[in-house]
Structure formats: C-alpha cells, structure tokens
Amino acid sequence: MNKTENTAMEMESLEHAAECLRTIAHPCRLRIIELLLRKERPVGELAEACAIPSHMASEHLRLLKDRGLLKNRREGRKVFYSVAEPMLANIIDCVGKKFICKE
C-alpha cells in the first residue's frame, strides 16, 4: 500500500466522522442524545422534551439511528430509544463544557 492509498483511507474515515458530526449538529438531536444518555425513553417523551411534534422527533431519531448512534425497541405500541454509541457521552460532555456550563 502506498502513501496515497493510506491517505485516501484516512480521508474516507474523516468523511464518515464529519457526516456523523453533521447528523448530531442540531439542537433537538443534541437534546435527544443528552436525554438518552441518562435513560431509555419513548418517542413521545423525547418530542415533549424538545417541544416538537412526535413526527418531527421520529425523523430526528431515524437519522440518529441510521448513523448507528441510537437503537430502538418496541414495547406494544411504544418505541423506546437508547444510545447505541457510548462515545456520544464524550461529545455531549465536551459540548456542555464549552457552550453550556461556562464558568
């Protein structure tokens, strides 16, 4: 493998990372992740916490799940979401320290 091929693979990884960061770069999605890091929650509860309709919360959740950041399970008619990627805690911690908890 030459240096150019190695750089191309690294760029591919960086592109994937950038896409994941773009996915979470929305206030509602950050809030959803913050809530789900504490405990599993149903769609309706997440929608209420973000002050958005359930269908909008479902779309945010779908995007996060499609990126492999969240997982879900069904219990009767309710769908519960939880964090699938534990490293999200580090990102939320960093965001909180930089932009929310300024001292």
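The record above closes out task 2.4. Task 2.5 opens with a second protein, given below.
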Amino acid sequence: MGPAMGVRRRHFLASLALPITAAFVPVTAVEGVIGLDGTPVDPLAVPQGIRARVLVFTTTDCPISNRYAPELTRLSTHYVPKGVQFWVVYPVASDTPAVIRTHVGRFGLQLPVARDTRGALVKHTGVTVTPEVAVVSASGQVVYRGRIDDRYTDFGIDRPAPRSRDLNQALTQLLAGQPVVPASTRAVGCFLPDLLK
C-alpha cells in the first residue's frame, strides 16, 4: 500500500460526522472538470431529453465504492432509458486517466467519466465521502445528496441487503414530479479531506 492510499484509508469514516446541509443548491458549469482524454466535459449540462443527472463520486482505491459497481450498473440500466444521465466523478488527483481506465474496466463501469481536478463538483454538490451521489434536476438544483443505499451502517459493518434504497427512491420521486424526501442522507465511506478546504 502506497503512502497516498494509506493516508486515504486512515480517513475512512464509519459515518459522516459533518452536518448535512439542505439540498436544492443551485449549481452551474464549473472549470477543471475533464474527461479521460483531457478535454472539458460538463456533467451539469442538460442535453435534450435528460431529466436528471446523477453524479457518483468515487475513487479507485475505496473498497466501499468498488462494492457498489454492480448496483450502479443496475440503477443506470433502469434509469438511463427514463432520461437520467449517470456520471462517475473521480475527484482525487492521484486517480490518473490510466488508473481510471483500468478501474472502470475492472469493475465494468460503462458510464461517462469525469475527473474533478479542482474539486469544483465536490464543492458545488457538498459531497464529502466516496461513494456519495448527487442528483441534479433539469433546472440545475441538487435535489438529493447522500448514500446510494443503507447497506453500510458503519465502516466494516454492512447488511446482506439494504433496507433503504435511497438513490432509487430519490430518482423515482423526481421523475414523478414529487419533492425528493429525504433531500439528504449520511453516506459511509472514504473521506475527501483535501477537497474540503
């Protein structure tokens, strides 16, 4: 294990200790967000026919994030035809394009990828751990931020199956034109301390 990985692993949180702010935060296109080829990409853009975007924040060495790859594939398969666009966002500088390509190939993540090289998307959405998701409506508001589901109750403690599928519920409510409740939940995972300054 390299020094960077060791530091990040020491920053695992059993549960997020920081306060969760209200959702419905307006967001705009930000600089420093690039694709694997180095060209700018805009996960906050609203292409025709897109009703929502899901930004999934991850790192290549977070074991909790990696375990969610099959669930993300399942959710995207279900919701992409309904007008939901999924993005996998890598906010850690050590996750280089080559490392990310290996990661998405290993875990079968066939979704658009963005590198948040300046932590701008992290700051705009308020995420603090990986994996954590932000659901952005067509009007550009973060209507949900938090966990994918409640499978993980603490670091190293998980249920055989989740009791609450929070991301699924948020998308169902949003697409039905209903308020997203709850607007935020507490995620369990790998802390992003360097991006919160």
